[in-house]
Structures are given as structure tokens and as C-alpha cells.
Design brief:
Strands 12, 13, 17, 18, 19, 21 and 22 form a 7-stranded mixed sheet that branches. Strands 14, 15, 16, 20, 23 and 24 form a 6-stranded antiparallel sheet that branches. This protein has a 5-stranded antiparallel sheet with strand order 1-28-25-26-27, with no helix packed on it. 0% of the residues lie in helices and 38% in strands. Residues 8-17, 135-150 and 372-376 have low confidence and may be disordered. It contains no helices and 28 strands.
Length: 376
């Protein structure tokens, strides 16, 4: 089983943003012959003021045909990436026009529409957070802020790398965990599972720093540990050599011993190699259900730059994650615990809980894995 990235909610952006993406949906029977987006700061007023964020009127022109998509129903979807510079997103307004050739939305004399990252603005005056499917007959309905729905693909498209990830110092679990991952390769540009430091521990007479990360036990994936230095660069990559983790390794609610980790010695260190853990789902038969989660521990000796590892299985606890769209975000775990069905049987509650901080200037996703056939 692979983990799936799912959209959870959109939280309005209130702080300043470097770049936003907006779309104009031209559904007129006679399509506009050209397109521009004029974005301005509503707080800059008065004679002689220069409120524009894009170029002066008519604004940022579309000159690349790749930015104009024609749908099967004849609609044209035009896309801009707008650098807001010093303008706060909450102050940005947009007017779409046909490059000052007598057509514009909103109409002449009307204020621009509020800029919302990722939104679709229809020529009939409606707007939507979701893309038109190509078979819609209208824009949004009701209050004008909802519209035609279409699945926003997070299963096949890697949304985690739409902006280059920003890593901070520490250990990350890298792998091919997701539904969109290459099944044969460990990837290092979408590592979002960061190890959290624990209490130091003495192992075989040596004092180690201990770090832990939690992952579902129903995953099938390859995994390595990468260390990022204080400059945000990948400094080392560790693995077990070759090691299988599955239904019987470790046994249910048991752990491995502390074993030595090996650093990649290839050049570059991110080159494809076999120094990884092979995880196989513990859900392998209807008669022997053993899901739960793993705690993966890394013990690191700074003095000699050596590491050990241990994996512990926990049967009656599952993990999923929240993550924001911020490029430096890491996955925040939430947990599902078992409950008794009767004196001899138990089941998961299918409700995940944790205390999670939501920032007002972020969008959020859920990362979770699913099982097509539930095994009990």
C-alpha cells in the first residue's frame, strides 16, 4: 500500500505571498482574442499613485500559448503566475482584459476582484476554487464563490514538489512512499517525514543522540535516512545495507535489535543503490491481520559520525499526517487507536486525533494510506 496525499481544506491566505497563480475562464461565445491580468494594490490611492503590482495597464500580458488551454466544451482557461512583490495578498485586486481592446472583467468603472491563489475567475462574473471539467455549462452558483467541481489529482501528481522543498537541519526519512512515487526509486526531493529528537541513550557503552519517526505498517516501500546540514543541504544518507521489514520482521508488537547503519559512499550520494529498508505491508492475509505502525529510531554518534537503527512495531495504533503547502513543512502525525468490539476482538476507531497548529496563511493536506480490501 502506498500513501496518498489528499486535499483537506483551503485556509484563506492573509499574509504576503511571493507568487500566486490565477486563472481566467473565457466562456463567451466569441472568445477574447488576447488576454492580460492587471493586479493592483487597493490600499494605494490618490493622484499620482502607482498602485499596479503587475505592469501598468493593461497589466501582465499572456504571450505564451502554453498558458491558454482550450477545453472540450470550448472554454478557454488562461493562467498567470503573479509576483505580488510587496503587496499583501489580502490587498491585491485583479482586472482581466483583452489587452486594452475594449473587453474587461470586472467591467470598466468597477473595482477588481479579490486575488485568491489558485482560483478560477469566469467571464460571467463567478469564481471558483476548482477547475472547470470541460463539460460544465456554467460557472459557480449560489453566492458566487463555489463552482464546477473536478477532482484535484493528488494521487498521481506530486503536489509536494510544486515548489522546491526547503529542508532544515536534521534527519528525514526518504523513500517512495506515495501513490505518485516511482516504485523502484528512493526520492530525496519530497522527504516530509522528519525525525524528532528523543532522550539520549547509551548503546554498547557509547552515548548516542536518539531520533524517532513514525510510519504506517501497511506500507510497501523502500526507505533511507537522509541527514541535512545547517545550510539545508543533504550531507549524508544512511541505510541498513539490505533489510526486510514486514509481517514477521519484527514480529507483532516487537522490535529489532540496535543494528549498524551504513552511509552511502556512492557519488553522488543520492545515486540509486541498494542501501535501503524494504518495507512490505503487514496486511498479507485475511486470517492474520497485523497493521498498526512502526517507530523507526536512529541513534547518532556525533563524535565518530556513525549511526545505529531500530524499528519497533505497534499493533493497536495507526498514524496519518497533516502537512501544509509551505515548502519547509514537515508531516504532523495524528493517531487512531483501537477499541474493543467484544471480549476477544478489537478494531480501529477510524478516527484520528492529535493537537495540530493551523496557520492562517497556509493550505493543508492529509497524508494517509488506504487498504482496498480490509483484512481482519
Amino acid at each position: 500500500m502506498m500513501m496518498v496525499l489528499c486535499i483537506l481544506m483551503s485556509i484563506p491566505l492573509k499574509m504576503m505571498a511571493d507568487e500566486v497563480t490565477i486563472h481566467f475562464v473565457d466562456k463567451e461565445s466569441t472568445k477574447w482574442e488576447s488576454y492580460a491580468a492587471y493586479v493592483y494594490d487597493k490600499t494605494i490611492t490618490g493622484n499620482g499613485s502607482q498602485p499596479w503590482v503587475t505592469d501598468q495597464w493593461p497589466g501582465q500580458k499572456v504571450t505564451n500559448s502554453a498558458d491558454i488551454e482550450t477545453l472540450s466544451n470550448g472554454y478557454k482557461v488562461v493562467t498567470w503566475k503573479i509576483n505580488l512583490k510587496s503587496c499583501a495578498l489580502s490587498n491585491a485586486l485583479v482586472i482581466f482584459n483583452n489587452q486594452d481592446k475594449e473587453k474587461q472583467y470586472p467591467a470598466s468603472g468597477q473595482p477588481g476582484k479579490e486575488v485568491k491563489n489558485g482560483y478560477y475567475y469566469y467571464s460571467d462574473g463567478t469564481m471558483s476554487a476548482t477547475a472547470p471539467s470541460g463539460t460544465e455549462t456554467g460557472g459557480s452558483t449560489g453566492g458566487g464563490t463555489t463552482g464546477p467541481t473536478e477532482k484535484w489529482d493528488t494521487e498521481n501528481i506530486n503536489r509536494l514538489t510544486e515548489k522546491p522543498r526547503v529542508y532544515t537541519q536534521g534527519f528525514y526519512l526518504a523513500g517512495n512512499f506515495f501513490s505518485f512515487s516511482d516504485p523502484k526509486k528512493v526520492t530525496y526531493d519530497d522527504a516530509v517525514f522528519k525525525f524528532q529528537q528523543q532522550k539520549n541513550k547509551t548503546i554498547d557503552g557509547t552515548d548516542y543522540e536518539i531520533y524517532k519517526v513514525e510510519i504506517p505498517a501497511s506500507l510497501t516501500a523502500h526507505a533511507q535516512v537522509m541527514y541535512v546540514d545547517e545550510l539545508g543541504k543533504i550531507k549524508s544518507i544512511f541505510g541498513p545495507g539490505t533489510y526486510y521489514i514486514g509481517k514477521t520482521s519484527p514480529n507483532t508488537d516487537m522490535s529489532t535489535q540496535w543494528l549498524s547503519a551504513r552511509a552511502n559512499t556512492c557519488t553522488p550520494i543520492t545515486q540509486e543503490n541498494s542501501n535501503y529498508w524494504t518495507f512490505e505491508s503487514r496486511n498479507v492475509s485475511a486470517g492474520d491481520y497485523s497493521d498498526g505502525m512502526y517507530e523507526l529510531y536512529i541513534a547518532f554518534d556525533k563524535k565518530f559520525n556513525t549511526a545505529k537503527w531500530m524499528i519497533k512495531h505497534i499493533q493497536k495504533k495507526r498514524v496519518a499526517y497533516f502537512i501544509s503547502t509551505d515548502p519547509s513543512a514537515t508531516a504532523l502525525p495524528v493517531y487512531d487507536y483501537t477499541k474493543k468490539r467484544n471480549d476477544t476482538e478489537w478494531q480501529y476507531s477510524d478516527q484520528f486525533f492529535a493537537t495540530v497548529y493551523f496557520a492562517s496563511d497556509r493550505d493543508y493536506y492529509v497524508i494517509s494510506n488506504y487498504i482496498n480490501t480490509m483484512v481482519r
